[in-house]
Amino acid sequence: MTVKKYLATSINSAAQGSPTSPDSSWASRQIDRFIAWTTDAYRATRSFSLLRIIYAVGMLLFLIPSYGDRAYVWGFASTWLEPEIKRRGYPFFIEKMFPKDNTFVFDLSYWSLIVLVLLFLVGYKTRFVTPVMLLFWIGLQSNSMLVTNGGDTIFRITLSFLIFANLSKHWSVDAWLQKRRGHRRSFTQKHFPVPLWLGAGLHNTALMLCCYQIMLVYVNSGIFKLMGKEWLEGSALYYSLNLDAFQVVPLLSELAWQITPAVLVATWVSIYFQLLFPVLLLWKYTRYLSLVLLLGMHIGIGFFMGLWSFSLAMIALDMLFVRDSSWEKTGNWVRRTYTKARQILRSDIGLSPEPRSIPPRPEQFANAGSSMASE
Amino acid sequence: MKRPLNKPRIMGMLSALAVVTYVFVSLVLVSPNTPVRAAVFSVASPYYTQKWNVFAPSIMKVNTDFSFQAQWRDANGSLVKSEWVNITDIEQGNSLGNWATSRIHKQSLNAMGAYQGRYNKLTAAQKKIARDTFIERSGNGFQPIGNSELIQKLVDAGNNRSSVISFLRYDYMMMRYATIFATAYFGEDIERVRWKAERTRANDFEHRFDDEQQFKLSDLVFGWRQSNVTIDGAVVNEYAGVIERNGGKQ
What we know:
heterodimer, A: mainly alpha, 21 helices, about 70% helix, globular, B: alpha+beta, 6-stranded antiparallel sheet
């Protein structure tokens, strides 16, 4: 969708929901458009559902490998950190969630956090699970300032926004239960109905805050990089690949830095695509180009430097810039291609084609509707 | 024409207000130190604190490991001095080739990084004192230099009390960390510990294909500290477990 088409769609949807008259001023029309965009529908629901799954995987990659060392890193064997921990300013109840002087409660909290992340992963009671999981997440992180990275910080900050978002509309147990229930309303829906303007308003505010957060990370980091000599001369990647703490497979890192053009290009791409990210988002093709390049960059960071929780957090947030309509188109295309490929494969090996036909395109539905109407 | 203030409009305004507020708060938090930042920090910290300059502007080039040495008394009452033990190497024992590694691999590395950061804020005269021992003679034996005496000695050498306190707090933590680790590692009643930042650096980009090592960095060695820790058997067992799980003694 071009910028022009997007604006036209937004104006139309705003006009449907608000009393914009032809004599309204430009500013007033923009405000109406913003209000309509914010309150008349839940945006980026597929991206948010994907984010939920990616975040959960990132958090499990934090919790499960560290399970054996939990007492040493956060628990009763880490009391030497107390003089600094006490100065961080977390409230009493947060500090007491993972007590260093009670192994049973500490372990119970650690297990509870793992269970909460698993529930978050499958999307069960997500509205309730998200804030509780965030509390436990902060509680664990408040026990040590030495082992977190940027990914954990992103989880902490954005989850406080995501409490207000609908993260389980797709690919979740919540969605499955809702589908099974059909038109019947759940207990919560019956007794505590949330009007669309409120639910969508909170959801879309969370979307805006998350999108802003990732732009802040990119632009802030890009500005700092622009001030660094090694970043400008294109050698920064060489140095980061040579740090022991970030070498997962030293042989791979060695091989990577020996390809000089790759080092130069990857260093420059990481500066300029981060710095220009907000501008590149404005046009469809530059948006997808930057998302693909940044996706590659984050997979590279995870693969070479082992910073998977950071990489996954950034990938999940990048995906918020993909619209629901784009996910739908991609899903339809994948399904059609898969069905076609299966049919070709079956005919090649001499089997009769399957009775299932290729799913119709959305425009075919539209045509069918109009032809039926004309009849 | 003025629009009626309906619920969606109020929601839209609140939404815009939330975004504008967070934009302001986050921009102030990532900006250099100012009085406004201090005020915002006091409200938004620790939940929304963030910094995104880990590898910039200057990229990290030096590997810094945390190594310690310990002393204990043998059956004759003579002090025995251990070899250097690299905690970072032990903590990273299971990291190689592991894409989903335990967070333990960052602990001593970041502890030494933070300690060095505080050390670097001291003046040259204070750094000299910090690298010296914090133990003094007492009659026929030895004792740690008293806190107030140590603070005064360092403040007299630089007149930056907050940096001194901040350094000494971390120094105390490092003493506890090294003492418990040494107890678990050597199985002895540890009396003194000292530590060093063991530093290595890859060749510069221009010399990346040279076989000869370009930099031979000296280790940053700190003086002996009296081990002033009440040893808990369960904690020592946990440390021993960590050493065992990560490949055993060096």
